[in-house]
Structure formats: C-alpha cells, structure tokens
Amino acid sequence: MQSSRTGRTGSDVLVVGGGIIGLVTAWRAAQRGLSVAVADPDPGGGAARVAAGMLAAVTELHHGEQTLLGLNLASAERYPAFVAELEAASGQRTGYRACGTLAVALDTDDRAELRELHALQRASGLDATWLTGRECRRLEPMLAPGVRGGLRVDGDHQIDPRRLASALLTACERAGVVLHRDRAARLTVVRDRAVGAVLADGRALGADQVVLAAGSLSGRLDGVPDEARPPVRPVKGQVLRLRVERPYAPFLSRTVRAVVRGGPVYLVPRADGELVVGATSEELGWDTTVTAGGVYALLRDAHELVPGITELPLTETRAGLRPGSPDNAPMLGPTTLPGLSLATGHYRNGVLLTPVTGEVLAEVLTTGAPPDFARAFTPLRFGPASPASPASPASPHPPVRLERTA
Ligand code: GLY
C-alpha cells in the first residue's frame, strides 16, 4: 500500500473505474506527482472494448450541442500529441489513423438530413465539403451506385479503442499507478468527505481524493449521497467486426457513415484489416444481449451502403453500454461531496474525449478546479440551482435520440 500526503494508508487519488476514462485520469494524475490507485475488476475493459473509435467531432454534430462541440474539438486537436506521448510512454501502438470521414446519403430524405448537417457545420465554422454521388464513389469506389451525395470531413479521424486501453494500462503501470483488480462496492464517507472506497472483497482503500469514472455504472456505487450521485444511464450499442483480407486497398480508405431510414450506420476500416460496423442505440437498461435484430439491421444498412461487405468474414458481434448523461455531455470535476470528483457521462464521445478528460481531471486533482475551458461541464449543473447545461440549453431535440431499435 502507498502512503498518502496526509499520512493515511492509501493514495492521494483513488480512481473508481479502469476504462479509458479512468485510466487516462490515473495516468495524468500520476504524471503530476500524485500517488494513484485504480479499482476495477477488469482494467482496460468497459465500453472501449466495444466502441468503434471514431473521432467524429464534426460528423456527429447535433443541434443544441455547440458547447459540447467546443470540448470535442479541443480533444480532437490534442489527439496527435496525446497519441505520440502515450505510444512513447507505453511502447505500444494505438491504431490512430488520420484518415478522415465521408458521410453519405442514399435517398432524398438522407440527402436533406445531410444538407442540414452541412449547414450546421458551416454555421459552426467547421470544415466539410459537399460532394456529388459520383465524387463520393471516386473517393470510395466500394460505395453503392445509388449514393446521392455526401460530406467529406477530412478532420474526423479514428483510433482503435482496444489498443488505446491497452496502451493506457501499460502507461499507468509504468507511471506507478496501483491497480486493484476488484470492484469498488462502496464509497467511504467520513465527516461529509469522501476518503476512499471498500472493495467487493472487503479491503478498504483510503485516498485524499476519489474520482468516480465507472462509465455507465457510475450512478450505482453504494455510499454516494444522492446529491452527488451522477445521473448516468446505460445506452446499449451493438457493434460488428468484419475482416478485410489483404490487399486492403480496394475496400475503404476512410470512415464511411450514413443515415439509413433514420438510423446512423458507420464503417470504420482499420489499418490492420479490421472493419468495424456500428452501432445500434437502445435504451434497454442493463441488457447487453447481441440480438439477431440488431445484427440484421446493422448488416442490412451497411450492405446498402457498401454492398461488398457481404463477402467479408464476420469475426465478432458485441454489445456495450454508453454512459448517457441528461444533456449528452460529460460530467468533469468536483461534486457537492468534498473529496469526490466525477469523470463520467461521456455518452457517445468517450474515445474522442479521452485526451481532454485526462487533462481536465489532472487539473481538478491538483488545483481543486477545472481549467476555464471545461467549467461548463461541472457535475454541479444538474444540481437544484444548476446553471444552463452545456450541451442543450435550447435544444429542439430530445436529449437522446432513439436511433434504431433492434
Ligand atoms: N460515437 C459513436 C457511437 O456512440 O455509436
């Protein structure tokens, strides 16, 4: 066990949750000279094991989410330097590819929706170029002949979230982060202050500060007072993995996505030949069943977009849970309970927001407050006297769209 600054057995910081958000928090805090422990039965797992890894600040823009867009762009901008530093620290590759994205339309309705998105992107000062169907197919010859037009977004890249998680885990270990491979069962609160957690096996871990970064499970830790408990709910996503055999070149060179019959579908081609097809978005509580309906809908829509995918081996089907927040934006920073901070609620942007989350939480843990650019994402915005939410103060849309049901 480590010894904390206050002399108690434990650490300066205990991070509850060892997914990519918990690990980046732990790594960045350790780099600032804090002693850090992480509690997770399966560190490096969580939603990152399912996620496709699109860094889609521009193509996943929604009305009413302009404040969130600022954070997303800040994180996308940090990605190249973050990846270089993480790969050097871990000795591992992350699969980061600056490949860009092509969002296409298959029919008149899709095209109208894409035109709306383009107008919103331009109004937000973002780079996106409208292409005819023929121009789309010239870029990506495997696209269906029926593609009616598209948006070329050269700034939306991708990373392999499994490699990212593995690299973060190694970087944490090399930085001296202590991993407790067990579930945190209960937050320890003494005299109205979080001072650690008790693990499922009964071990008590002390810490000067606790960060709750348990993804969709963040609202379920016992011992957290109601007013500090994050309003996070699980949003199921089913994702498929296919394999493109060598040579990869004729298949897809960049992420291709579309809205088909009102539901988004995306194909993310990795440099190693993996092709990820995602994702459903289902409000079904804690269910992580891969359903025939979900797989069917994804394959049907992906096939309409890129007919050649039916030739490829289907290597994996999996479902995971996004941590949804009431306004689709993350909760980053101190709670009403002294000693307890949050890094959760990233919803569909967890991979994209990993670099900036590490930076924000390191600042919170060393100075007590987030940097100015992240203040809008305070967890206190959901409190009784909350300021306007960052993501959707006047959104014409409901906070979460049920994009497709299996
Ligand atoms: N950002 C992609 C998804 O959540 O499905």
From TrEMBL:
The catalysed reaction is: glycine + O2 + H2O = glyoxylate + H2O2 + NH4(+)
| UniProt cross-references to InterPro entries, sorted A to Z | FAD-dep_OxRdtase, FAD/NAD-bd_sf, Gly_oxidase_ThiO
What's a BP term from Gene Ontology annotated to this protein? thiamine diphosphate biosynthetic process
Coiled-coil features, chain-numbered ranges? none
Q: Which UniProt keywords apply?
A: Oxidoreductase, Thiamine biosynthesis
- Outline the segment boundaries, as ranges, of region: Disordered: 384-406
Enzyme class name = oxidoreductase
Q: Which residue positions does the secretion signal occupy?
A: none
Report the pathway entry: Cofactor biosynthesis; thiamine diphosphate biosynthesis
Q: Where is the FAD dependent oxidoreductase domain?
A: 12-363
- Give the GO cellular component terms, alphabetically: cytoplasm
Do the record's keywords include Kinase?
no
EC number(s) per UniProt?
1.4.3.19
Q: Which PANTHER family match?
A: GLYCINE OXIDASE, SARCOSINE DEHYDROGENASE-RELATED
The protein, known as:
glycine oxidase
- What is the gene called? thiO
